[in-house]
Structure formats: C-alpha cells, structure tokens
Amino acid sequence: MPTYRDEVVVLRTHKLGEADRIVTMLSRRHGKVRAVAKGVRRTTSRFGARLEPFMVADVQLFEGRSLDIVQQAESLGAYGADIAVHYDRYTAASAMVEAADRLNEAEATPSQYLLLVGGLRALSRGDHAARSILDSYLLRAMALSGWAPSLSGCARCGAEGPHASFVAQLGGMVCGDCAPAGSARVDSATAALLTALMAGEWEDVDAAPGAATSAASGLIAAYAQWHLERGIRSLAHVSSESAP
Length: 244
Fold this sequence. Notes:
Blueprint: E1 3-16, E2 20-27, E3 32-37, E4 56-62, E5 68-77, H1 80-84, H2 87-103, H3 110-125, H4 130-144, E6 165-167, E7 172-174, E8 184-185, H5 188-199, H6 202-207, H7 210-228
Parallel strand pairs: 3-5
Antiparallel strand pairs: 1-2, 1-4, 2-3, 4-5, 6-7, 6-8
Helix pairs in contact: 2-3, 2-4, 3-4, 4-5, 4-7, 5-7
C-alpha cells in the first residue's frame, strides 16, 4: 500500500479513541480524503494544530484499506486562528467547508480545492464582507460541480433576459411566462450583484447596497440548499450583515 503526498484543506475532524482524530480533507489531486491522525490530541503532538478545520497543509499519507493514515503535515496556510476570532468569518467558513464536503463526494478537481483555499484566505484577511465571500464561493463551487445558475437567459426556456424572477428549482432566473406563481422577484441591483458574485467582480460586490446583498444571499442559499438536498446546516448561523 503506497505512501503519497498532497496539499489539503481540513474540512472537519472527529475524535477517535483517547488521542486520535479522523480528519476529513479536500485535497488538490486526490479529491476528498478521510484519514486517521494518530496522537494529535496529545499536547506533545508534532502536527495536531496543523490539522484543525480551515487549515491548509502539505500532508504525507499512508493508503489504508478504509481510512488513510497521516504520517506528516506541514502548514501551508494557517487561516484557522484569524477566522475563529471573528464570528462572521467563522460561520461563513463553516458553511464553506460544509458545502465543500457535500459537493465533493466524488473525486474533486483541483479547481474546487483552489477555490476553497482562496475563499478561506480572503476570510482570514477580511478582504471583503464574510457573507459576500461565502456567497461568491457557493455560486462558483456549484458551477464547478455542474450546477451553474442561469443569471441572464431564462433557465427554463432560454429566452434572453434580463428577467425579474428567480426560481431555485428551475435553475435560476426565469422569464415572466415560465415563472410559477409566487416566484421570488429580483430587482436590477440584486440581479447585477448575483452576476458580480459569480464573476468575482469585487469592486461591484463591495459597492452593492445592503438590500441587494441580503436579497442575493437569500437566493444563493436557497439555490445551494435545493441542489444539495440535505441543506447546509451552518448557513443557519451566518449573518446577512457580516462586515469585513
């Protein structure tokens, strides 16, 4: 059974026995990996702090039958400490890693890994509002998984926009003829913000009015949770008024 190395983001951990942990990681080349980190809960552990949620590390793993084994871990991005001391950053990061865990049941692509690393780095530095970083991450991660929302043409019939309704179940923006009764109405500022979040146009995102930011967040949460079926539990704790 071979030994291999990869760059990983730690998504979550679970206690195992008296001193070990099971660590779930999103790797750059091997998709989602679950591995046992032996002795990491002891104070004498050489790499326990490097395998906490939101941390980015270069790890060496031994391929096991059901769970791999972490043999070495070197820190590449110590984002956890800067995220954990800010409630808005922490809740946004928690929702991001939960979504990454759910989206990458199958083998992931390097793009998913790099997108998550970039999002956690931005959160740790407070580059933008935490909720906006989360919203942009969710839109782009969903797109990488093949669930890109339609933000210009009608998601149902393809008619060119702009359109004024958003229906998560139909795939995004829909025209007046396709919109079911009671569909969420989307004003032009919110529609423009959704496009900016998808494209990573941060000047436009940061300048968006608060009402558009809140409305866009609600639509993105509904869209992500619809496609992930079981939902993202951490989203319940994310404030829509997060500040950088």
